[in-house]
Design goal:
Elements (H helix, E strand, L loop, with lengths): L3 H4 L19 H21 L1 H19 L8 H16 L28 E6 L5 E7 L4 E5 L12 H18 L20 H9 L7 H13 L4 H4 L5
Antiparallel strand pairs: 1-2, 2-3
Helix pairs in contact: 2-3
């Protein structure tokens, strides 16, 4: 009899893209480390072995500690820089954003903070007449299109069908690298509970005055209980 761990299917080979380097350091930290080693060799040739070893011991180990990425891909040097930048911003009050007539934004406008301040939002319709949003970044001349999809869940689907869905999703991600003029793509899976607004609208539009009372009770129970389901079943992914 196969155990539960043996029958549970998992998917992998999702790798974070990074540049090549020694000991997972990346290209720039590797070149910096090699430069320090070369500098230590030159010091040894000019001033002697002891000064070269002292320079090597004082520079290379701290570089390896600060520049080696952690499990989340960020190095200790990046975390230190973010902490210093955040502390400096809080000391000057730059971490507080106020817009509108009583805010600090010029002309009393309601601009978005940070890099999105110069962005422009417009609305368009696709070939099926459905509206979608387009965010324009005029400084870099980029357009961001936000797409929403509602795929079917894995409930009542056999494992072969689920494997095909995952394989097709991987092929679609791989095909994006060959899409012309596409700079980046970010996939966000909803991890918060659905408020159930769309479900209530759908049930209200399909309600019939001649429906039996039992059907009314079932639809009312679905309307009240189904929105709480995604809270424990959805997971975020990058």
């Amino acid at each position: 009899m196969p155990t539960q761990a043996e029958t549970h299917r998992t998917y992998g080979n999702w790798r974070r893209p990074r540049s090549a380097g020694l000991w997972r350091l990346g290209l720039a930290p590797t070149l910096l480390t090699v430069g320090v080693v070369v500098g230590a060799s030159l010091i040894s040739m000019i001033a002697g072995l002891v000064p070269g070893l002292v320079f090597f011991a004082l520079t290379v180990p701290p570089l390896l500690v600060l520049l080696r990425p952690a499990y989340d891909g960020y190095t200790r040097l990046q975390r230190l820089g973010a902490w210093v930048g955040g502390t400096h911003a809080r000391s000057k009050g730059e971490n507080t954003y106020r817009s509108g007539p009583l805010g600090l934004v010029p002309c009393g406008t309601h601009l978005l903070p940070g890099l999105l301040a110069a962005s422009q939002l417009s609305q368009a319709r696709d070939g099926h007449g459905r509206p979608f949003a387009v965010v324009c970044h005029p400084h870099v001349r980029h357009l961001t299109v936000v797409l929403e999809s509602e795929p079917d869940g894995a409930s009542l689907a056999d494992q072969r069908q689920v494997d095909q869905w995952v394989a097709h999703h991987g092929e679609w991600l791989a095909a994006l690298s060959r899409e012309p003029s596409l700079i980046a793509c970010q996939i966000s899976i909803e991890s918060s509970p659905d408020p159930g607004t769309r479900l209530r609208h759908m049930l209200a539009n399909r309600r019939s005055d001649s429906a039996p009372s039992y059907a009314e009770e079932v639809m009312s129970e679905i309307r009240d209980t189904y929105p709480a389901g995604p809270q424990s079943s959805r997971r975020g992914s990058r």
